[in-house]
Structure formats: C-alpha cells, structure tokens
Amino acid sequence: MPSPGELPDTFFLRTFGCQMNEHDSERICGLLGQLGLARVERADDAGMLVYNTCSIREKADTRLLGHLGEARRLKRLDPRRLVVVAGCLAQSRQTEFFAEFPFVDVLVGPQSLHELPLLLNERIESGRQAGAFEESTSRWSAELPRARRDGPLAWVQIMTGCSNYCSYCIVPYVRGPEASRPLRDIRREVAELAEQGVKELTLLGQNVNAYGNERASGAGGDFPALLEELAGIDGVERIRFMTSHPKDVSSRLIQALAELEPVCEHVHLPVQSGSDRILRAMNRGYERDDYLRLVGRLREAVPGLALTTDLIVAFPGETEAEFADTLSLMDEVGFDAAFTFVYSPRSQTAAAALPGRAAPQVAEERMGRLVERIQTHAARRNQELVGTRVEVMVEGRSRQSGEVAMGRTRTFKTVNFPGEPHPGDLVEVVIDEATSTSLRGRRAALVTER
Ligand code: SAH
Ligand code: SF4
Ligand code: F3S
Question: Is the bond leading into 243 cis (omega within 30 degrees of zero)?
Fold first, then answer.
C-alpha cells in the first residue's frame, strides 16, 4: 500500500458507460477514500485524475480521447499528477494503451479494481506504468469499500461478465465470463443498505435473469429465488433489475414480478431488432415471435407493466425490409421508452467481420424514423396515465426551475410535481400532463415518510 504523503490528497473522477461502471465508480471512490484522497469536482484542482471508461461503441472511445487530452495538459502543468484509466476500455486496449499514452500512470480493468491501491504503489515505487487485467472475477468489486451518494436509491451488483456473445458486443471480452455473486452476500449487503435507509434497489448485471444459471455457480439460488429473498427484507420498498435477456425470462420470474410486492412493474427487455434474420446474425437466441409471446405473457400477468428496450439500427447487411420489421415490432409492442444505437463495429467481435455495412446517411435516416416511432408510442403510453394516481418515490429536485420535486413511478417514469423535495418519501401524485419522456402532476397524499 502506498503510505500517506506519497499519494496526492485529491482525485477527480469521470465515469462513462453503463450503470455497472457507475457502480464500479462508487467502489473506486471508496478505495481512494480509504487511501485518504478526497474527491473534487474539477479536474484542474485534483492531484489524481481517474477515468472509468466504456468501450461499447466507437463514440465512447473517441469521447475518452478528448478527455485524455485534458489529462495530458494537466499533467504537463504538474508532472506529479497521477492519471488512472479504469474500466472496459482499459481492459480492451491494455498494454498498447500505455505505449500510446505515456502520461497514463495506471490502467486497471473492471475485474481488477481491488488491485488499484497496489498498482498505485507499484507506480510510485518503480516509476513505471502499472496495469492489471484479470479476465474473470476473482474478487467482487461489490465487496470493496463503497462511497455511495446518500439517498433512497442504491445499486447492488448481483452478477459480473457475460457469456452470451451477441455477435456485435464487446462486453464478454472486457468483463469476462458470466458469474453470479453468492446470494448470502447480496442479502447481507441489501440488509445493510436497508438499515442505512435505502428503500429502492436496482440489481445489476448484464443478464440478471441468468443469475445462478452458470455451471458450478455458487450463487445458492436462481433469480426468482433471489428476488423472493430480497423482497422479504425489512425496509426494502422497491426492487428493480437490469438488464434482462429475453431468452432467459422464466415462468417463475413472471410469477415473481406478479406476486412479490416490492418488485416493480417494469422490465427492461432489449429486443435489438424485429427481424428474424438479423436476430440470428446477432446471436440473440430468440425470434421475433418468441419476443412477442413473452411480452404477451408478461402483460397478462402484470397489469400496468412498463416495457423498455434497446435497439440497434443498421446492423451489417440490414435491408430496408428488415428495418421495417423493427418498426412494425415497435407498433406491435408499444414500448414505454427505448434506447437506440447505430451499429458500431468492435474489434474482437464476430459481427466486425460481416459485410454490408450501411452508409452513415442510411443509418442516420433509419435512426430518425425509429426514434420518431418510439416517441409516438412512449407519448401515447404516458398519456394514458393522465388523470390517474401514481405512487412516486421522491429522488430530489427537478432540473426544472423553482420548487419542483422529481421522483419515479414504480414503472420507472419520471414525475415532476410542485413542492419541496424530501428524498425517500413515497407520495401519491395525480398526473395532469404527459410528454414522451416525463409526467407532471400534483401531490395528492403522502404514503410513507422517509
Ligand atoms: N446486457 C445488455 C446490454 C448491454 S450493452 C443486454 O444484453 O441487453 C447496452 C446496449 O448497447 C445493448 O443492448 C445494445 O443495444 C447496445 N450495443 C452493444 N454493442 C453495440 C454495438 N457494437 N453497436 C451498437 N450498439 C451496441
Ligand atoms: Fe452484450 Fe449480449 Fe451480453 Fe448484453 S447479452 S452484454 S448485448 S453479449
Ligand atoms: Fe460500457 Fe463496459 Fe458498460 S463497455 S456499457 S462500461 S460493461
């Protein structure tokens, strides 16, 4: 371990990518806090610059390069500054990254976060760049000290990695094979969080409904069993989970969604495409009809269920007719919201070698049509809530000006309503207005106080 005095007093941290990375950043802050460093808001004021990176699409890479320009400039101003690059891009580029960016001091992959103090020590003692890139989980980052923002919400990691190898996706290469965290450890963490006043949990994993499925898993239960266990913990009002893979939604999971009170009526269920040929080429493991049937079963079992999804446009070889299949799937399902991405080739992945890359104008044009279609359905779904009462967990102040509180429904919709925000309060709100992205209303009653 580096001794005090050798390390800077302050660090700046910027996080890219998904919630998994945001959650890892809580652990990075926890580790650095334990080493005596305080977090500062501006890179210029920090003795250490930490970038927790994402590699999911090319854009993520180029954005990072801009920030590394900032790091190079600040390091020139004070060569004692330390620059740390963590996360998925650190893992995917490893040592070539060191050669390309000589001002980077430490590189640490997502499965090696626990090594960060040792790497800093190595860097200080040897004066050489230090890196760690474990390929599978030997220690759960979830077990490291955590610096969590106060408030009623918390993330809980239940899995790492992914073994699905969707043909476009880099995650299995940078996060390693799927592994499930032991149920008793998750239970303990959740009980502690609940004691600290956390009311809403989001269980995190690339494919949470495969929890406990991997061969020789030491999890001690499957996903429905985990939900049941956590739903019984005192103080846990709401449980969410992300991400679900359509091929692994079991009847018992549908039953758990329907029956366990704290489990919220929202499933994020990435479909990626509405075309069977594209779904096969993506190696998703289901067909359009399987997905539609699953949506039917979910909606039948869980009244008021919100469904959100991820979509990729212009996968290699996607024809206009295949894209039209994605549009028609939007009409058949009517999602509450969707994230849309233009296909981005990632080295190492199978799809990177496929012919038939769309011209950027074609991809953009399809994206425009898709987003419009999604917004139409999202607005309609939200409009249906006007005049109804919804339960809202208050999270904080709205980004709108004035005394406006912001919270979310159990179905993950953002609600703004006039009043002083008390994070953690559960309130009933009558909805007056809706757009495709949020709801606005008035407070009707307090359900429980924080
Ligand atoms: N594990 C989750 C999602 C992980 S990545 C799942 O399987 O659903 C989040 C989203 O990024 C994916 O759902 C996909 O829509 C998108 N994505 C992943 N790789 C991509 C790529 N190479 N190009 C464009 N979008 C991609
Ligand atoms: Fe990537 Fe597919 Fe795994 Fe999701 S399930 S992380 S898209 S490989
Ligand atoms: Fe990005 Fe890694 Fe998440 S590649 S999307 S930060 S798992």
Answer: yes
